[in-house]
């Protein structure tokens, strides 16, 4: 039941962000569902392993390396799901590269999923 809630939260988050931000896009509803499932699986299976592997670096950077882990997970989700794309962003006239675009999208996904966790 927790997994289904997490998948629904991911699907809803991606759909809302794609509606509000033109740099986040998915090709059709099937791609949206697959992206939600893949993102949830990566968060549930790969994130704990990466946190343990990079624990020393995360301690030295006072937890900031977890942002890099979040970006990597989101990059893998866009890599594994064809049709799910996060393009480069322009913020206040500044062109952000792929890493910072994924970082911004990761922060927005984390915020929305946290809000949905409170609601669901």
How would you concisely characterize the structure shown here?
The protein is mainly alpha-helical.
Structure description:
73% of the residues lie in helices and 8% in strands. The chain is mainly α and 120 residues long. It has one domain (2-119). The protein has a two-stranded antiparallel sheet. A two-stranded antiparallel ribbon has the order 3-4. Helix 1 (2-20) packs across helix 2, helix 1 (2-20) packs across helix 5 and helix 2 packs antiparallel against helix 4 (65-80). The radius of gyration is 14 Å and the shape is globular.
Please report the distance between the alpha carbons of the first and last residues: 11 Å
How are helices and strands ordered from N to C? HEHHHEEEH
Q: Which class best fits the helix and strand makeup?
A: mainly alpha
Query: Given the C-alpha coordinates, what overall shape results?
Result: globular
Low-confidence blocks of residues? none
- How many domains? 1
Q: Main sheet, how many strands, which sense, barrel?
A: 2 strands, antiparallel
- The Rg value, from CA coordinates, equals 14 Å
Helix content: over 70%
Helix count equals: 5
Q: What is the count of β-strands?
A: 4
Arithmetic mean of pLDDT = 91
> How do the strands of the widest beta sheet line up side by side?
1-2
Into which percentage range does the β-strand content fall? 5-15%
